[in-house]
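Backbone-to-sequence.
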């Protein structure tokens, strides 16, 4: 399971979605029929995600356009955001006089059971990151505080974190992304590669899972 990053209450970043935002009615959008009854609403439509991702790509280009970049993508929940972000950075680079040499490396963090985060965190695919030495790192995904401590040991030139979603939660001092797509209430969302026990990754929109959906796919 992949989770959005958590942001302490009272801070801001990205496009702020208020606590009382009800989302959009499901019948306004297309979504897989096999999830009928499993969702409460469409929280962030796919088109809005794409527009915001392009803006983040422009911000990264402005800040890191003179660096040799390694994009460290956290699987599985971060892969859709990472792929779309990298595609837009490449497109901007092709049409700019500031070309960015860029590589992508994938790792996986596992810390979720059903809708609850566990204390047992595993980092897979990060056994040897020595190639990061002297490079600029753009990390995308979740649970960045633990990962950053590990990556810093390989002495990259600098590290920046991009996160599509940041949750507003009380009493949390977690590492916050440098580039934020959306700041959202503390609700459990799925879709756009975010899952609930490996389901809902095939949704293109970000949606709120229903109580019946949680029960249906609970393990």
């Amino acid at each position: 399971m992949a989770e959005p990053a958590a942001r302490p209450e009272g801070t801001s970043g990205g496009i702020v979605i208020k606590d009382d935002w009800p989302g959009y009615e499901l019948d306004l959008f297309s979504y897989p029929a096999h999830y009928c009854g499993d969702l409460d609403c469409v929280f962030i439509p796919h088109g809005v995600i794409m527009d915001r991702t392009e803006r983040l790509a422009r911000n990264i280009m402005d800040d890191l356009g003179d660096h040799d970049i390694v994009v460290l993508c956290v699987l599985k929940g971060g892969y859709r955001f990472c792929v779309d972000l990298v595609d837009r950075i490449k497109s901007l680079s092709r049409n700019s006089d500031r070309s960015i040499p860029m590589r992508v490396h994938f790792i996986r963090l596992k810390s979720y059971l059903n809708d609850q985060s566990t204390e047992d965190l595993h980092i897979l695919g990060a056994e040897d990151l020595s190639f990061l030495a002297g490079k600029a790192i753009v990390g995308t995904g979740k649970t960045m505080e633990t990962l950053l401590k590990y990556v810093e040991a390989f002495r990259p030139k600098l590290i920046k974190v991009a996160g599509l979603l940041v949750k507003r939660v009380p009493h949390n001092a977690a590492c916050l992304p440098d580039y934020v797509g959306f700041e959202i209430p503390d609700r459990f969302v799925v879709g756009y590669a975010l899952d609930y026990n490996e389901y809902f990754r095939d949704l293109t929109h970000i949606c709120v899972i229903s109580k019946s959906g949680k029960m249906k796919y609970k393990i």
